Amino acid sequence: MPLSHTTQNHDEIRKWAEARGAVPAEVSSTESEGEPGILRFMFRKAKNRKDDNLKEISWDAFFEKFDESGLTLVYQEKTATGKSSNFNKLVRADAKTRSKSSRAA
Hints:
- The protein is an alpha+beta fold.
- The chain has one domain.
- It is built from 3 helices and 6 strands; from the N terminus they run βαβββαββα.
- The protein is globular, with a radius of gyration of 14 Å.
């Protein structure tokens, strides 16, 4: 069973993404007043990589929005079969804490 990890560490996030050929992106038309929109990763080698709604942004812009929004990256290193996994989800850090707390009760 693949394990998921969580981090807010910029170096760890960037290393994970770059190892998979991913770059930081925003969902087009969700940005406002020069601020990045909804954050995502764009995987250049993925089968469904052609998504016209994603626009590449700089790592600086990505991490600025990431920190301002209080986000955490939930990700997997490997799939159940041992292959490199692209699974990731950006969640609010407080939502992750609430989720853990509710499972412990």
